[in-house]
Amino acid sequence: MVELRKRKTPPPAAAPAAKKERKPSAKSAASKSKAPPAEKAEEKVEDVKEPEAPAPAADEPAAHSEPPATKANGAKKSGAAKGAAAKKESSTASGPPKVGDTVSLDGFGGEISTNDGNKTTLKALVDESKAGVIIFTYPKASTPGCTTQACLFRDAYTPLTSTGLSVYGLSTDTPAANTTFKTKQKLPYTLLCDPSASLIAAIGFKKAPKGTTRGVFVIGKDGKVLACEPGGPAPTVEAVKTLVETMGGKEGEKMAEVADEVADTAEKLDK
């Protein structure tokens, strides 16, 4: 008889050993304890941040800006300076200069020539003079009225130039015509030729559309207009005579006598 034996039940598997919990090292714990939370760090940074300086008030001027009053005063001074300069120097754009005006001689009247054919300008003539320039204008050389006028200035030449003024005659004639005129009448002064009438127009004695008005123009060394008026042969001499007397010419009385003597003859010839 076979005997059946029961198989032994295998013992149950042993349960896995529980993992031991790691303890943080002292170094790591110290590190964690030292590091503050991010939020707290930001709060500390904000706490030590310096406050911004307050913005200046709207009505308070900047440290380096110029006070409005100073700017206004500067503008007034600048305007006054410009006004004084404009008053001192007249502009031919507004018309011929008048007595009392100060002319800028650079380029004034353009270029002209002497009866000898030498080129010159009003500025050069004034620069060469001692006290200024007398210019009498006449329509045409060697005509009766112009001859009378030229001779009146010739006869009064010494007293008229006693204060340092230089005398010139001015017309649109050619150098040849004026040289003949000067030689024949034995004129002691130079005659100026202005074919384009640029200087004649600048001083206000150009007729329209063409021609020259008889007159006299006197300008001082400083560019100040001392006389500027149209007139016949005798009146143009009289105008200069009066001016020279005012200037204190040494021979003013003698000049007056000479002018009186020729005045009657000049007026008769000019009629």
TrEMBL record:
Q: Where is the composition biased (Basic and acidic residues)?
A: 37-52
Span list, region Disordered: 1-118
* Subcellular localization, as worded in the UniProt entry: Nucleus
Keywords from the named record = Antioxidant, Disulfide bond, Nucleus, Oxidoreductase, Peroxidase, Redox-active center
A molecular function GO annotation: thioredoxin peroxidase activity
Write out the biased-composition intervals (Low complexity): 26-36, 55-84
Q: What does it catalyze?
A: a hydroperoxide + [thioredoxin]-dithiol = an alcohol + [thioredoxin]-disulfide + H2O
Chief location bin: nucleus
PANTHER family to which the protein is assigned, alphabetical? PEROXIREDOXIN DOT5 (PTHR42801:SF23), THIOREDOXIN-DEPENDENT PEROXIDE REDUCTASE (PTHR42801)
Name of the molecule in the record: thioredoxin-dependent peroxiredoxin
Per the UniProt record, the source organism is Cryomyces minteri
